[in-house]
């Protein structure tokens, strides 16, 4: 065995089988190098990959440890309750920060989704979500100015889109069909989430409609750090 990926595969297998449990200290780089008869640099690369994949964490001067991948936030991906409310009800130290509100260029997919015309103005509002002061999700909402006339003025003050809807008289909602995909974070997303590039993001595309009138209120794109959540589909 001479490749760092081979060592990665072996250690993941040992962690999955229970040989190493959450917060167990892993062998040192020297021990790994001796066990698998590889240079120490190969062992170091294997541990770097495992850390970037979210399997281990390091303690300065003490070594590498198995990350607890089961203490994750349970998230129901459907329903008519806001993300903020779900997190608060679960007792988490939750915060939301609006980081941008800006007009977008014409995008046929988004305009069609919102069932509006090319002459309309669409604004995207980005809210970064924190649990225990760690960024874990980015919610990007796209709204038409023809529906929300003050969105360009108040967008940066919105922390809960559902509360904003309520203030406009919309109180009952239907969700449009959702699409799930996986992507790896861009450089700007890695900065936002403070995460390595090998931590994938779960991307949820959905929308919100007013139940009474059927009017489309929002096209929504959410980026979740995949190592922070377990997902429940209803």
TrEMBL record:
It comes from the Bacteria. GO terms for molecular function: DNA binding; DNA-binding transcription factor activity. One of its GO terms (biological process) is negative regulation of DNA-templated transcription. Residues 1-69 form the HTH gntR-type domain. Pfam families: GntR, UTRA. Keywords: DNA-binding, Transcription, Transcription regulation. PANTHER family: MANNOSYL-D-GLYCERATE TRANSPORT/METABOLISM SYSTEM REPRESSOR MNGR-RELATED (PTHR44846), MANNOSYL-D-GLYCERATE TRANSPORT_METABOLISM SYSTEM REPRESSOR MNGR-RELATED (PTHR44846:SF1). This is Mannosyl-D-glycerate transport/metabolism system repressor MngR. The lineage of its organism: Bacteria, Bacillati, Bacillota, Clostridia, Eubacteriales. The gene is mngR.
